[in-house]
Specification:
Layout (H helix, E strand, L loop, with lengths): L12 H9 L4 H8 L6 H7 L5 H13 L3 E6 L5 E6 L1 H25 L6
Antiparallel strand pairs: 1-2
Length: about 120
């Protein structure tokens, strides 16, 4: 899915929403940031397999989409933290509902099938 679809007024709203969270790591990043601000190193440690390059790219895209706020603290060495914006928090709450639905679906899939 192309990033342009996130801003295209002629697409379905669900398509526009999915374009914003598309990718392997963004939903995990939103989930982690929902509990409070995090430094990039913390995010990488909590999502094994996430490279620094991909983390930086995902956070930049999320900031451009208005989901994440980047704050650079004026200390040496520089300290950067990321947090969810109001829009990101709203999306996080919506993803919680989607997550609940996904867990219910997985439970149904693992239930023994009754004989017909």
């Amino acid at each position: 899915m192309t990033r342009g679809r996130a801003e295209d007024p002629n697409v379905c709203g669900v398509t526009a929403a999915i374009a914003v969270i598309d990718g392997k790591w963004k939903t995990g990043l939103i989930w982690l940031l929902a509990s409070g601000p995090r430094r990039p190193g913390e995010l990488r440690r909590q999502l094994p397999g996430l490279s620094e390059k991909v983390l930086t790219q995902a956070l930049r895209e999320m900031a451009a989409d208005g989901l994440v706020h980047r704050e650079v603290h004026d200390v040496m060495p520089l300290k950067t933290t990321y947090s969810l914006t109001a829009q990101g928090q709203e999306l996080s709450e919506l993803l919680d509902a989607l997550s609940d639905w996904g867990h219910r679906r997985l439970e149904r899939l693992t239930e023994p099938q009754s004989a017909s």
